[in-house]
Design brief:
This protein is mainly α and 327 residues long. It has one domain (3-320): Glycosyltransferase. 54% of the residues lie in helices and 6% in strands. The protein is built from 13 helices and seven strands. It has helices spanning 3-13, 19-31, 35-47, 71-81, 84-100, 129-132, 134-139, 143-157, 183-202, 206-224, 246-261, 270-281, 306-326, and strands spanning 124-126, 168-170, 175-178, 233-234, 244-245, 293-294, 302-303. A three-stranded antiparallel beta sheet has the order 1-2-3, covered by helices on one side. The chain has a two-stranded antiparallel sheet with strand order 4-5. Strands 6-7 form a two-stranded antiparallel ribbon. A hairpin with a 7-residue loop joins strand 6 and strand 7 (302-303). Helix 2 runs antiparallel to helix 3, helix 2 (19-31) packs parallel to helix 13 and helix 4 runs antiparallel to helix 5 (84-100). The two termini are 16 Å apart.
């Protein structure tokens, strides 16, 4: 691991984390081969599993989708090291998704487990969820449900004109909550689609793998059209008056490097990914914090975030795999 990446990783480990942040940080450590760290992340995710089966929960949160982002590291900790508590945690997370989590009428898992002010079940679908839920379902060999989720996000949130994703749809009211082409959201989606494609191929589901491959290429083409002259993305892709964000680019680069390393994408996008990462590196301070990203905790302004740190670690891990493959 490069020194700059280790600094970014160390800063990431110091950040407070909500469920999706714990999940993506643990996954980044797993993809980077940091065994002691990702297993520890899995163990702590199980320690904070609630009575419904949701991993890494804090306080009175209403998350449905986000806790599943820690599911794969729990599964792998069980498989590789015989950690029964982690295996049990992964199974309980799956049971929650299959039996308890709220879904739309056509089966898409909703982002939150809560009631609306008028007493209805919340039916919001957030594009972040494409990373949180389908990859874990696929890792647990629930491929049909995983693909049901992916195609549901496409129906509700993919813009057919630009091929990037809108942010939030309310299936209950049939209206958008946030009809913005959110850069980080499309970055989450690209990473999620790439993982589903890999699991589908490993499971021999060529139908799903081929569909995911086509979807990835379509969304990637749409995303890269919005790359700015300084190799970042505007927070709302088609609104140049919104702030610039490295998170979306780092997520895109991580997905591109992964697909190249897996032999599923040629190197025509390699230069773009390299430029995006190099741009982000200019905004890493001496403590390893990446600045000028879509910032926690409200993600409405530039700042710093755990997911930006994680995406950088993921991107570098997959880039190193490409380099080793070429040697």
């Amino acid at each position: 691991m490069r020194e700059i990446t280790r600094n970014v990783m160390h800063a990431m480990l110091a950040m407070q984390r909500h469920p999706w942040e714990q999940g993506v940080c643990g996954q980044a450590l797993f993809e980077a081969g940091e065994e002691n760290l990702w297993v520890s992340a899995a163990l702590d995710s199980v320690k904070r599993q609630d009575r419904l089966g949701r991993l890494c929960m804090l306080g009175g949160r209403v998350d449905s989708a986000d806790p599943a982002s820690a599911g794969e590291i729990c599964l792998r900790a069980s498989e590789r090291f015989g950690l029964k508590e982690c295996g049990d945690g992964a199974v309980r997370m799956l049971q929650y998704l299959k039996e308890t989590a709220p879904r739309t009428a056509d089966g898409v898992i909703c982002h939150r487990n809560m009631k609306t002010e008028d007493g209805r079940v919340d039916q919001q679908v957030w594009i972040d969820g494409l990373y949180m839920v389908p990859p874990f379902l696929a890792a647990m060999h629930e491929m049909d449900d995983a693909w049901c989720q992916v195609t549901g996000f496409v129906r509700y949130l993919l813009d057919p004109e630009t091929h990037v994703f809108f942010h939030i749809w309310d299936a209950g009211s049939g209206t958008f909550v946030r009809r913005k082409r959110w850069a980080t959201g499309t970055g989450w989606a690209l990473m999620g689609i790439a993982r589903v494609a890999a699991f589908a191929e490993a499971d021999g589901r060529k139908d799903i793998a081929d569909g995911a491959d086509r979807l990835f290429d379509t969304v990637l083409d749409g995303m890269l059209r919005y790359r700015t002259e300084d190799d970042t993305f505007h927070d709302v892709l088609d609104e140049p008056d919104t702030f610039k964000d490295h998170t979306a680019g780092l997520m895109t680069a991580a997905a591109v490097y992964r697909r190249i390393a897996e032999g599923k994408l040629d190197d025509t996008c390699l230069q773009a990914a390299d430029a995006i990462v190099a741009s982000a590196e200019k905004d890493i301070d001496r403590f390893g914090m990446i600045h000028n990203v879509c910032g926690a905790p409200d993600f409405a302004h530039q700042g710093t975030s755990a997911e930006a740190q994680a995406a950088f670690v993921m991107a570098d891990a997959w880039k190193q795999k490409i380099s080793r493959k070429e040697e």
